[in-house]
Amino acid sequence: MPPVRPPGRGRPKAYWLGNLPVAVLALVLRLIGESRVRPDALGAVLGTGAALSFVYGLLRAGESSRGETAVVGPLFLARVLTVAFLVVERRTAEPLVPLSFLSFRTRVVVNGAGRRSSAACYAMAFMVMIQLQTVLGCGSITAGLVYLPYCAGMLVGMWGSSGAVIRLGARRTLVVSFVVSAAGLLLPSGIAPGDAYASGVLPGMLVMSVGCGLSLPALTVTALTATTEEDARLGSAVVTSVQQVCGAVGLAVLVTRCRDTLVNWTGPLHAATQGFSLALVVGTALLLAGVALIATMLTALTRRPRPPLPPPAPAPRKKRG
């Protein structure tokens, strides 16, 4: 059995380098396509720096003591940059993200629920791969192959999401998708080191992937409610940014919690399994909090409109004798 490595180190850091060229290319195309519009460069730098500093501080918290300067410094810098970003966006004539756009109640609620969903789903995707390689002993190629059902479940959920929104409405679809995702996270939370892939990992992975795929289009549709043609791209960009940033934040927090659990167990397999289970339970709590938020705050905003009643039939005329 290969030795257990603490999650959060090694290869996953390469994902940041892989996304960097894509971000640079998107920025260049944006500037070329809309050269007449003056870009909010300062707002982009402040917002990106705040997100990077926050995620970096959380990752450092998983590798060192939380009171060290390497942890406190980035987290404090993230707060300063966030405040500066809000001040700049309020005073800039053409802000990157107008604060009035974010104050719409539907977007506030949907982005709040999306933060919890992204944190749980991204952490689940990462932790399952760690569990496959460290506890079940799968190699890189084998782990990738047995992970394919997760992708298939995502496609199935996304395929049925539009129909569910039409029939049930966005609010009910989101509640159902979050509950399904929470059930998928909770299923493998009681896994033991000797459990097989088919019985310990696969059922929860399939249920979780279907729920996650069901929620993504519904979140996007709801977040774009009451947007015009001009700010529809902004609404889509905000949703995507929330998913990416909060997914990284959730992953960093749950990996840190798993590392703390590893210290309390002597056997490496038991330690990795208990850390995996703890992350799933925390992710389940995040999704249930999202369910409560959607159920209480979107009751009247995304309700499916009723069809108009048909006009009353004219009264029959009396025949004259």
TrEMBL record:
Presence of the UniProt keyword ATP-binding in the record: no
Source species, domain of life: Bacteria
Keyword annotations of the record: Antibiotic resistance, Cell membrane, Membrane, Transmembrane, Transmembrane helix, Transport
Principal location listed in the UniProt entry: membrane
SUPFAM superfamilies for this protein: MFS general substrate transporter
Gene Ontology biological-process entries: response to antibiotic
InterPro entries in the record: MFS_trans_sf (IPR036259)
Annotated transmembrane regions: 14-32, 41-59, 71-88, 119-141, 147-166, 173-192, 204-225, 237-256, 276-301
An example Gene Ontology CC term for this record: plasma membrane
Membrane topology, from the record: Multi-pass membrane protein
Localisation per UniProt entry: Cell membrane
Protein name, entry field: MFS transporter
Organism: Streptomyces finlayi
